[in-house]
Amino acid sequence: MPIEIVRADTGDTVSLRISGTLDVLTAPEMGTQIERIVNERRMKVMVDLSGLDLIDSSGVAALVALYKRVRAGGGQVHVAGARDQPLAIFKLLRMDKVFLL
Amino acid sequence: MDPRAIRLTAPCTLHHRALVVRLVAEVCRLARSQAAVGDAASTDDLAPGYDVRDPFDVAVVSAFAEIYNNIVLHACEGMVDPIIELRAAVDEHGVTLELVDHGQVFDPSTVASPDLDSLLEGGMGLHIARAMLDVVEYEPGPPNLWRLQKRLPGSSAVPAPSVRIAQR
After folding, report:
1. What CATH number is given to the structural domain containing A88?
2. What is the pLDDT of residue B47?
């Protein structure tokens, strides 16, 4: 299943619902979203991964880039909802604590 | 060579990645089914899409996808119409996957273990594969060969390398 990224803005908060597969093929689409969010200087980003079925290291790198760049600008990123294969990958890479999954 | 081995030759591109990964996911499911019901296991009830939730499938598919990415992006980078061969075998102990490419030789010993205490944006692929599987072997070519093995839960032995490539 290809990736689907649904963005919703509420005040200063951006919510991203990512579904499908976030991998080497689809991570560039995530990169486009990151650029927009960083350029808009959004201070709070909520990422819902409950619809994410598969992730690879390129997908993880995209989420880490989002996390680092928003925080570098003084903002916050909350990642939630990971399950199954994506959760296993986050735990293996010890990112479950960073993302507070 | 095990006559029951499943073989696929495909263009070595990211656009064929989903096809190859799906085959691996179904091989995992077949292995689990075979462990449960023996030779009555079949692929007649192929899932309509990805269903990578069982921990065994999660491990094999995650590891395989990382190795496949590395072959496409690094070993076969710049090649004209590169191909990749996948051979998969299932026995009572688990799954053996072999990937053969004709790209540049790689030296896995040069890849350092990632520092997981820092938030990384790269260099995680081989670590994922090694952590998820029981065997990750590489034989430089040409052609290059990756051998990946995963034991089924409850099995004490790794699968026999029954699909070892006869002609390299």
Report:
1. 3.30.750.24
2. 56
